[in-house]
Amino acid sequence: MFDTELLKTTLQEVADIKDIPCGLISSVVIDSRKAVKGSLFFAFRGENDDGHRYIGELLEKGVYCVGDEGDHDSEMFIKVPDVLEFLSLLAKKRRSLYRGKVIALTGSNGKTTTREFLTTFLSLSGKTVYRSWSNLNNHIGLPLVILNLPMNIDYMVLEMGMNHKGEIKKLSEIAHPDYSVITNIGSAHIGNFKSQQDLADAKLELFEGTGGVIVADISNRYVKEWIDKNKERSNKIAVYQQDSFKSRYNEFKEYPEYLVDNLLTAAEVVKVVEGKAEKLNEVLKKSKIPEMRGETKQVGERKFIVDCYNANPDSMLRSIAGFYKKAIEEGDENICMVLGSMFELGELSKKMHQELVNYLKTLKLLKRAFLIGSEFEKIKHCFLNEKRVVFLGNIKDVVPLLPETGLFLLKGSRSNRLEEIFELLE
Predict the structure, then answer these.
(1) Fewer beta carbons within 10 Å, N or C terminal of the chain?
(2) CATH architecture of the domain formed by 2-82
(3) Are 414 and 310 in contact (CB under 8 A)?
(4) Is the pTM of this model over 0.70?
(5) How far apart are CA 261 and CA 389, in angstroms?
(6) Domain boundaries, the chain
(7) By the 8 A CB rule, do 334 and 403 touch?
(8) Do domains 98-286 and 295-425 have the same CATH topology?
(9) Distance of CA 378 to CAs 64, 351, 381, 416, 422, Å?
(10) Facing residues of 304 across strands?
(11) Residues β-bridged to residue 302
(12) The predicted structure's pLDDT at residue 28
């Protein structure tokens, strides 16, 4: 909750001072269905709807409403020139009043699981923690998280996502993190950038924009180069090497290697923040790892490893390699994969999908790979003689061809909706 005085002072910077009735804001929302009396609703325009349509009925319920159009006869209606800018400014003001510590993280892969591990580590050490939830990690989501923050919390853990240059910079200006970490720098969203270096620079905006402590993986060459160029900031840089994590994979054999990397990255951050990071196995068991990130699902005689929340070339190769290695070690003979197309790769899409198929061809014990979606369809003609590789347009087309028994990896970008296979099988 926060007092409407914060609204009034923030309005002074963007519009005429408005006589808002005194009271507490119970929650900040952008979904009109979640607004209750005392909520603060921000009206945004989406592809299919416009939040301004609901302002009239929400005002009648006693909801404060922010919009950039309309002349509602209510002192609870706040008209501003730009709804997003006002949301960002209000969140920035609220962040300035928070006396706890903020930990911010971004990266090409593993942001959400690392966030959850961080939260569990800190909670087990007796700290109160508030974190980003769902996929609220962008220019709208992150301010919403901050504006709903309980002010008596020890730590706020914020996940930051990006598709384009400049986005992390803006989020950092709002969050003003005390500690910052980049989980990794891969090729996610590479199609939105001129080069891998440009993509890396966009991630590194998190380090550029912080006055706090940087927790840096110097195994990553882009991070290492940034550290070398910013030696004057060395008193606020704590380094670790993710490459060294490989020596500890055997301690957590039942988990995918990339998940262990996320756990140990979180541990490195907690060591800097709290001085120590303990109970790693307990953290693994107690953390709320989101669905479709390495979970196991049994359907009849078929065992699925479900890792289809999202995908890019780096995470795809890592997931496939880890799945295949573990299957071989455990003596599985019927190894199959259902892989969805990767998106936002731009001109590199064809090349990266071809490289992935060529990699699959090297996996000698792989029985069959079912390749789903438009990006795989575009390279189908290059692999017409590959009997172990099946190109299909839709996940629905897989079901009749799927072996009755075996171990299956389900991996691909979110828009493929690979998880629908379970409804189809049932």
Answers:
(1) C
(2) 3-Layer(aba) Sandwich (3.40)
(3) yes
(4) yes
(5) 30
(6) 2-82, 98-286, 295-425
(7) yes
(8) no
(9) 50, 11, 8, 15, 26
(10) 297, 408
(11) 299, 406
(12) 97
**Beta strand pairing status for 295-299 and 366-372?**
unpaired
Q: How many angstroms from the chain centroid is the CA of residue 174?
A: 18
CA–CA separation, 125 and 140 (whole Å): 31
Name the class of domain 98-286: alpha beta
Determine contact, residues 400/370, Cβ cutoff 8 Å: no
pLDDT at 194: 82
- DSSP label at 342? P
Torsion angle defined by CA atoms of residues 95, 99, 105 and 111, in that order, rounded to the nearest 10 degrees: -90
Distance, in Å, from the CA atom of 183 to the CA atom of 382, rounded to the nearest integer, reads 35
Alpha-carbon dihedral sign for residues 291, 149, 97, 17: positive
Distance CA 196, CA 302 (A): 39
Q: How many helices (H) and strands (E) does the chain have?
A: 15, 18
> Is CATH 3.90.870.10 what the domain over 295-425 is classified as, yes or no?
no
What are the tokens at 34? 């979640």
Q: At 231, is the secondary structure helix, strand, or coil?
A: helix
> Where do the H-state alpha helices sit in 213-346?
221-229, 257-274, 280-286, 313-329
- Per-residue pLDDT for 24 more than 80? yes
Residue 14, pLDDT > 90, answer no
Both tokens of residue 97? 């009043």
Query: DSSP labels for 1-44?
Result: -EEHHHHHHHHHHHS----PPP-EE-EEES-GGG--TTEEEE--
**Whole-angstrom Cα distance, residue 51 to residue 112?**
28
101-106 and 155-159 beta bridge pairing:
parallel
**Residue among 168, 197, 169, 172 nearest 185 (CA):** 197
User: In the numeric block, which tokens belong to residue 372?
Assistant: 């789903």
- Smallest CA-to-CA distance from 201 within 170, 232, 250, 168 is with 168
**Tokens standing for residue 351:** 């090349």
Q: What is the bridge-based pairing of β-strands 27-29 and 77-79?
A: unpaired
In single-letter form, the type of residue at position 159 comes to E
